[in-house]
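A favour, since you know our structure tokens better than I do. What I am after is a single protein written out in full by you. Could you add the entry underneath, on a fresh line?


***
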Amino acid sequence: MTPDSDNPAVSRSDSVRGLAQRHSEKLRFLFVGGWNTVFATGVLWLLDSFIPYDAHSLVQKEAVLVLSWVISVTQNFFTFKLLVFRTEGNWLKEYARMYVTYAATFVVQSLIVLALSTWLGWSLFWSSIPTLVLVTITSYFGHKYFTFRNAGSTADEGSAP
């Protein structure tokens, strides 16, 4: 026994540290994902604000969403690869997988955004906010088990999501 073992503050600190170490990938994902969300939301706001489009044209609205998506997915790829999952090599393969992972959520997210913007008259920016939780949860599992899964991954092995 160490002199600090009877100190509840030290053992609580050790418990928090251990918990953070066991879930470091998930914590990195949430932190980096938070940044990616701010970035993507900012890109959409900029495009929505400065690219003129007909508010009644679903094709023009979708074009703005696709451009925003491509810019954001590319930025997400670098932050997730380098800061969260920390994989080595496989740049093009993982970049392509990133698009596959996001494709399904993009379709669902786009339908929701277009519906909200049409039915409620909201801008694309405001219509995208309610979809953030769906995209966050599905993208974590997609990236962990598909985009960045490879033998060289240093992701938290054996830890359940």
